[in-house]
Write a structure and sequence with these properties.
Blueprint: H1 13-16, E1 24-32, E2 41-49, E3 52-58, E4 73-84, E5 86-91, H2 101-107, H3 110-126, E6 129-134, H4 139-150, E7 158-161, H5 193-207, E8 211-215, H6 234-246, E9 250-255, H7 258-267, E10 271-274, H8 280-289, E11 292-294, H9 297-309, H10 316-338, E12 342-343, H11 359-366, H12 371-385, E13 403-406, E14 422-425, E15 428-429
Parallel strand pairs: 1-4, 5-6, 6-7, 8-9, 9-10, 10-11, 11-12
Antiparallel strand pairs: 1-2, 2-3, 4-13, 13-14, 14-15
Helix pairs in contact: 3-4, 5-6, 6-7, 7-8, 9-10
This protein binds zinc ion.
Amino acid sequence: MRKLVGSLALSLCTSLYAQVGDQWKIIHAGTLLADAREAVQSEQSIIVRNSIIVDILDGYVSPGEVTGTANARVIDLSNQFVLPGLIDSHTHILSQQEPNPREVRVTRSNEMSALMGYEFGMRTLRAGFTTIRNVGGARNAIFALRDAINQGIVMGPRIRAAGQGITPTGGHGDGGGFRDDIFPHPHTGVCDGVTECRKAVRTQVKFGADHIKYVATGGVLSQTATGTEQQFTDEEQIALVQAAHAMGRKVAAHAHGKSGMMAALRAGVDSIEHGSYLDAEVADLFVQTGAYLVPTLIAGHTVERIATEQPEFFIPAVRQKALEVGPVMRNALRIAHERGVKIAYGTDAGVNDHGTNAYEAVLMNEAGMPAQEILIAATVNAADLMSLTDVTGTIETGKDADIIAVSSSPLENLSALMQPTFVMARGNEVDLDVPPLDLFPWPNF
Ligand SMILES: [Zn+2]
C-alpha cells in the first residue's frame, strides 16, 4: 500500500487520513501542468479528499492503493491536459452589457443582481475559471453571492470582492445626469478629498470588502464625455491606498491615461487595471513598485467591436472612447511584457460575456506574450495578487482541488482553454453539459 508522501503529509497527517463520510477522488492525469512555472509531467495521479489535494503520485493509482481511498472514484483524464483552475483578476460578475445601462442603474434591485451573478458565476466556472476577483458591483449582492458560494449554499467560482468601486463625484463609477431623487448623491462609493476618501475605503471594508477598487482615471463605459485621464488627485489616491493597506486590503486602480496610472503607482496600488496608455516610463515605475498590470485586452476588443459593428449601441461619448482605447491596449501589454512588468490575468468580464474569459489568453498571445507566461499570469500570478497563493493557483498537496482539463496542450495553442473538458472547484466536479440560458434578447458579444 502506498503512503501519502506529499510535502504537507507529516504536518497534516491527522486530518489527511480517512474519516467517515470523506469523499475521495483519484484523478488520472495524462499530461499534468501542476505549476505553470514548471515542466509538464505525464501519467500522474492526483488524490483529492473532500475539497483538498492530499497527494500527487507518479503513475495511475487504483482505489485502495493509498490509505483511505478504497471507495475513491477514479476520474479518467488520461488522454487530457490537466492544469490548475484558472483565475480571472477582473470581473463584474453581477451584470453583463445591456443596451440600456442608465435605466438598469436605477431600476435593478440588489436581489436581482445577486441572482444574475449566480448564473454568470456558473458560466464562468464552466469556462474553467475557479476563482475570480470582482472589482466593483452592487455591494450587498456581491458579498451575499461570495458568502453563499463559500458556505456551499450555491455553487460558483471562489469570489474575492471589492464591493462598490470608489469614484470621485462625476467620475467613472458615479452616475451622471440623473435627477437627485432617482440616483442618490452622493452614494457610498463616491468621495472627494482626503477625509472622504479614507472614509469611503473604510465603509467598503466595514461591509465586507476583500480588497479596494478605485478609479484613478476616466473610463470607457461611463456615460459621460469626461475622457480617460486622471480623476482622483495624487493626494486622494495616497489617502485611498493608505487607508486600505492599514486595514490589510490590497488596492486595484482602474487606469487608462498615463498621468493617472503614474499617480496610482506612486500612491502604492497593488494592481493597475487596463493600463491602456502604458509606455516605457510607466512600465519602469511598475517594475519599481512591484504592482501588477491586469491587461483586460478582451474588454478593449469587445467595446471596439461593438462601436464598429453597432454604431447605435453606445451613446456618442462612449463610442468615441471605445474606438480610441480598444486598439492601444495590446500595445500597452506588449511594452509591459517586454520591460518585465508583473502581469495578472484579467478580462473585465461583464463587458465581454461571462464564460468567454479564456479568449483573453488568445489576445494576450497575439500581443506577443508567450503561452507559458500567460498560463502563469492566469494561475500563479493572479493567486499572488489575490493573496491566495496558499489556497489555489497550482495543483499541490494541501491546496484546494481547483483542477481543470482541456483536450490539447494550451502551451501549443491557447485556444484549447476555451473548451474545458473537466472542471473541479474545491473538490466539486462541475457539470459542463448545461446549455447557457438565453438571458438577454440581443446577440451576445
Ligand atoms: Zn472593470
